[in-house]
Amino acid sequence: MTLMLRALFGLAALAAASVPATAAEAPPPPLTISAQGSFFVGGRDVASESLSTLPAYAAAGTITVDQVYVRYQIPVSPTRTPLVLIHGCCLTGKTWETTPDGRMGWDEYFVRQGFPTYVIDQSWRGRSAGSPAAINAVKSGKANPDTLPAVFSAGREPAWTIFRFGPEFPKVFAGMQFPLEAQAEFWKQMVPDWSASLPVPNPTVPALSELAKRLKSAVLVSHSQSGIYPFQTAALDRSGIRAIVAIEPAACPDPAKDDLAPYKDLPILVLFGDYVDQSSRWAPRLKLCRAFVAAANAAGGRAELILLPEIGIHGNSHMLMQDKNSLEIADWLSGWLDKRAPVKG
Amino acid sequence: MTLMLRALFGLAALAAASVPATAAEAPPPPLTISAQGSFFVGGRDVASESLSTLPAYAAAGTITVDQVYVRYQIPVSPTRTPLVLIHGCCLTGKTWETTPDGRMGWDEYFVRQGFPTYVIDQSWRGRSAGSPAAINAVKSGKANPDTLPAVFSAGREPAWTIFRFGPEFPKVFAGMQFPLEAQAEFWKQMVPDWSASLPVPNPTVPALSELAKRLKSAVLVSHSQSGIYPFQTAALDRSGIRAIVAIEPAACPDPAKDDLAPYKDLPILVLFGDYVDQSSRWAPRLKLCRAFVAAANAAGGRAELILLPEIGIHGNSHMLMQDKNSLEIADWLSGWLDKRAPVKG
């Protein structure tokens, strides 16, 4: 094959890969669920005079913000503890759905493994509302530009390094498992992120607490930016929290500052992928999480930190729930939960 | 029962109603689907120097905007034409999911009736990304405040009248079917709306065209603000559009200005609820849609305008897919589609 033919073939393959409906794998068998739906947890009412600058919509009124959108599916015979899947920076609950190259997402796979599964959008993200009032106050001259919210999007070039697809855009780590041939579909998942303009803890945290109490027993599964949220939720109230799984957390609790009592006897897994030691962003975070795990266990905890390469799973990016071996990791995680956080009788 | 006891009971009922999990109705039988998932259609790359004002995230980079998030479920034996459910102003695809009082949404109900069902978030809304660049340009002093986007939220007090819960907040039309006891859950569905800052047609329109072509035969079901989108999509390209259902459209094509040729032989339903003649917002829009339907039919169209009270269904608000009789309306709509837009052999 000439270079030009190879180039053409490459383009065609990429185009095909960006259309999930044409994924080549045999389709999975039908899925039967006992229930599904969506609802909100959390939220507070805010009265504002700056909801609009348009004549067709009134500037004054009451809106609800800080609530968290939750979408769930329940297996016909649940055999495992409900999972709450919490996405990271600049993303939404889409993180856990169909992968960029059209394979099954963790949201469905875990339902098929017997887990009731709850996927959220963080507050002020996706289907969880924010407020435009700060923008409109500036647009209408009532406030100064420096009062505008710190809302940001991650460009793909810097995100490439953060997601550890390679050391820098567009270089790729050898053996990397992310489906880069479908990266165009992945970049479409990214949305503006208001979290830096929100209070600490993020309003998602009390909403997660409300959700855990409603579910009575839930595993809070975080990713990246949301890594600290389940820990903050447990510090608020342990009710309903069966275990914490922190996938590549941006932060773990700090044993030098944070009370570790909320984590006593709580099954905790901190999970990282591959190439972490080659990342100036992630290597220090891994180190701090190691320190947390050690300190938590010294204080009566049941925490564990796993690097996937240590258990023979290689090539994983920061987006390991979308990597080509994502279901292999899901299987391993199911096994960990069965062992460390089985259903309570 | 004393007045005070009645008041207490009322509060308890309201609290219960706001928790969908406790809905009193018998649960529906399990649901079996052959496939589900999510993907994006549309989108364009934008390079920007204003993605962030935070040191932790680079200001320069490339993002994708204008894409439309699509979530779908396919029945095991589809017997009907795929539906694309397109929400309206200040809302997301949540519109079609579980109702505020915890009943089944149209998204699932239509799957159970044999329709492959696709729920979208309009571009720049929900899980469909926008860009924060215009905000950051002003925040960092590179642009003037009047360049800020016209992004608005609808407060519940003005929205009350727009949604025709009553003539004005908090009055209620006699016999109104919206589950107002769960209104707190409904207000949580509302999100900021960027549509006024986007080009016309809205980028959702070419994305819908891409989706219709992929589905090969689809019924585009709009609501309110999105009412004009399916008509604009058909004007762009009829490929893949089997029929249009416009539920309480904010606008129909204007026979005085718009070419009606794209609607020749196309099954079109314009559907309105109750109390329309009591609404200064909706009565004129109904009148304009009547004029469109007449003109489209005079030009070889197959358009029909139905007011629900005319077919014996009473008390419907603007949010008729969430009203207490929402599934009765869905059944009627299924019947209309079977008659007017049956599956093509």
Overview of the structural elements:
2 copies of one chain form a homodimer. Chain A has a domain at 76-116 and 153-340: 3-Layer(aba) Sandwich (Rossmann fold). In chain A, helix 6 (204-215) packs across helix 7 (228-236). In chain A, strands 1-4-6-5-7-8-9-10 form an 8-stranded mixed beta sheet, sandwiched between helices. A two-stranded antiparallel ribbon of chain A has the order 2-3. With 345 residues, the first copy, chain A, is an alpha/beta fold. Chain A is globular, with a radius of gyration of 21 Å. The first copy, chain A, has 9 helices and 10 strands. The model of chain A is unreliable at 1-23 (pLDDT under 50). The interface between A and B is large, with 81 and 81 residues. Strand 1 (31-41) of chain A pairs antiparallel with strand 1 of chain B, so a sheet runs across the interface.
Summary tags:
disordered N terminus; homodimer; 8-stranded mixed sheet; Rossmann fold; 345 residues; alpha/beta; 27% helix; two-stranded antiparallel ribbon; 18% strand
Main β-sheet description of chain A: 8 strands, mixed
Share of helix among residues of chain A?
A: 25-40%
Name of the level-1 CATH class of the domain at 76-116 and 153-340 in chain A: Alpha Beta
Residue stretches of chain A low in confidence (pLDDT < 50, at least 5 long) are: 1-23
Number of strands of chain A: 10
Could you spell the SSE succession of chain A in H and E letters?
HEEEEEHEHHHHEHEEHEH
Strand order of the largest sheet of chain A: 1-4-6-5-7-8-9-10
Strand content of chain A: 15-25%
* Category by helix and strand content of chain A: alpha/beta
Per CATH, what is the topology of the domain at 76-116 and 153-340 in chain A?
Answer: Rossmann fold
- The CATH superfamily of the domain at 76-116 and 153-340 in chain A is Alpha/Beta hydrolase fold, catalytic domain
Question: Of all protein chain pairs, which has the greatest interface, and how many residues does each chain bring to it?
Answer: A-B, 81 and 81 residues
